[in-house]
Fold:
Amino acid sequence: MDATTDKDPLVQEQIYNALCYLGESEPEEILNSCDEYLRQHDKLAYPHRVIILKAMETVVRNNISLLDKSTVKEVIRDWQQAASSVLVAVGQRFINKVMEEVLTKFQPGILPHYFVLQTFANLSVSNGE
Structure:
């Protein structure tokens, strides 16, 4: 997975394809490996994190009926955290666009999801003066 940091888009695509291919035969193992990699590399630049997250999404979509309930619960929580981190990283440069997107998740009369609030808070901390 370290090759996701390669600047060549073809290499990045090959990594994505390899993760998806391996995920067909061992979906839980690939999801756990991706999760562990993202945990160990919490400073991974968001474009590279997105490659792994997209591969995880594909593996989950293609194998949802085979996944254990506890794996799915863990993946969803970690996935949401990783996605929140990506938005915060992007927000350091494009705060207006990210805030615009996050604010659409606030609906009158509906309690927002925990990760929406966490993303909102982390955006404000990372862009505070």
User: Anything to note?
Assistant: The chain has six helices and no strands. Residues 69-91 form the longest helix (23 residues). Residues 7-125 form one domain.
